[in-house]
């Protein structure tokens, strides 16, 4: 018996020594298959930039549904990972609805800050209840605060998929917030004007979002006619050019200035409507209007980089809805109806730009041909397998809503709608007569990137009382689409030199409990969890009593 107690004493001493050493040497071991507790190097680098306290308030404390408890646990684990890299990072768990008497006022205040709650339906023991949860975190640094959405909800997602999607985006969401708070030397974006592009109020939500990362300015190409060199020099002060739905043709001189900007390293996002058609035209025309090709004088520019936007319309059975009024006066009803020229484009999840984003809504979009050349091209968005093209000119009428589509004709799907182009850019004017003379013009440039999207309205936010709404929100159906996230990701990818956006490709799989099995086997596991320890204790007590009796009676 003496040897046994000596062995126990040695084990206790070793454990105490090990704990003392652990206080001086901190290390963590990630034994998960997907390495979800191992931070990506770009995330580590941005977290280490802080030299003063960063306080993170996680609004997931209190009595919350089971799926959010898992999200809370994963968020806390991630915070501990960040804290292990920089001791200035700390976090608090906050229950925003702890004071039940002030709950309504608190909810209103949180919503006024843009923190939208999740309304969760809980079914337990045959009873159904609704709970409001605020799945958000607030990252506070000095006098600035950034909101971080913890819940990643996508249309049609199950509870398990919703948690997986949410956990998968956590590291990027916090690293992105750290970037917003720590960036001092911002890159810049030029909003191109002068060719009938969308007005600022229609791209206001996109601009206000990216302004957290980048400086924004406007460049008008009208001045190319009088002083092209000055326009190019101004453009070269910007890291990216944004061309949002031009409606007037570019002159050859304007095109050459833009060409030189791109060849000399300027990134660009082109949002192009190759067909002229608007819902407002249909409404104003008594329910119909003609769709016509739009000539922008950009075909040869895009052809040089390996894409061609065709002047036809995509007709897709994976559609979004429009709302029309039926009836008259007080009897009017507003009904959401299918509109096949507004495709609902689900992500291909083949690139950091489009991974784990909500479906994107496009309006009167056109398909693109992706051509073979030396540039690397990635299709970021494409129509559904059940889509086709409709040629123009053609009359577009609201009467099509009342006609059942012939599914057999929708056999030309998976049409490219947004393409990323990467490579060493070559001027489209190489070995050609130049429309004007520019100083230090280049025919071969460094590695560069551009994105071409065959829909100008992808960036257009709706208005209410002449004020911009959130990009991707449809005020008529109250649906949210992934337009803003797609465009912000596109911008960040083009301008990101750290590889931070590649974190979005990180795959995480969270195993969740089967709710149905829990309900069916609840009693069995209660008996096992409560009864088995009691039974084992009794067996051990009887054995120990028998052992003592036999030992001391000898």
From TrEMBL:
| Residue ranges occupied by any ABC-type uncharacterised transport system domain in the UniProt entry | 186-490
Q: Does the keyword Transmembrane helix apply?
A: yes
- List UniProt keywords, sorted A-Z: Membrane, Transmembrane, Transmembrane helix
Spell out where the chain crosses the membrane: 7-26, 525-547
Annotated signal peptide = none
Which InterPro entries does the record match to this protein?
ABC_transp_unknown, DUF7088, Motility-assoc_ABC-rel_GldG
- Name the UniProt record assigns to this protein: Gliding motility-associated ABC transporter substrate-binding protein GldG
